[in-house]
């Protein structure tokens, strides 16, 4: 067997150390995720960290540092696809982003361990666990703050439901009224509802700017009085 002639105890112990470090550090990161009942918990983070270390360690032994760098690039992209599997969209809400980022971090820890950078792997583990635990009270405190429409980064739109025959005229009126109130329009669309072909939905998306809800209420109330308009409203949606 070729194994008997190529086996080197020192290299094997080096690999064993890298895998052990990745296993232990991945377990620490995964334990916090498991405690919070996240989708990717203890076993997933351990496997990601250990596998990343194994790939990098193998490249280090075969091709040296240059080979390890190439493998790390593939690990980064590969774990990105794995993280996409834990991201779920429920209506307007997206869940799993933090879990996916944690998996990515576990892969980074494994890469450090596989490259024999044990101290860096331990330091990164501390930062990852701190990010998932120590920052939680700060996040909760920020989320409890009242929502301020004036200072928020949000997309605002004005929607009119109107007579389809007057859609073009009302679209121009909508743009003129908004610009007169110093709310320039970034985009405007005219849609035909499936349940009412004689109606038209006119949606104007505003240029990102400071919004005064009271002023916009006045503009919408004025638009609702226009001939042919059956309903007028405005809405906001926050985006990352």
Automatic annotation (TrEMBL):
Major subcellular site: membrane
Highest taxon above the source species: Bacteria
Residue spans crossing the bilayer: 12-30, 42-62, 68-88
Domain MgtC-like C-terminal: 156-234
Domain MgtC/SapB/SrpB/YhiD N-terminal: 19-139
Compartments, as annotated in UniProt: Cell inner membrane; Cell membrane
InterPro entries in UniProt: MgtC-like_C (IPR048640), MgtC/SapB/SrpB/YhiD_fam (IPR003416), MgtC_SapB_SrpB_YhiD_N (IPR049177)
Signal peptide: none
Keywords: Cell inner membrane, Cell membrane, Membrane, Transmembrane, Transmembrane helix
GO cellular component terms given for this protein: plasma membrane
Tagged with keyword Cell inner membrane: yes
Protein's membrane topology: Multi-pass membrane protein
Family: Belongs to the MgtC/SapB family.
Entry function: Virulence factor required for growth in low Mg(2+) medium and for intramacrophage survival. May be involved in regulating membrane potential by activating Na(+)/K(+)-ATPase.
Protein name as catalogued: Protein MgtC
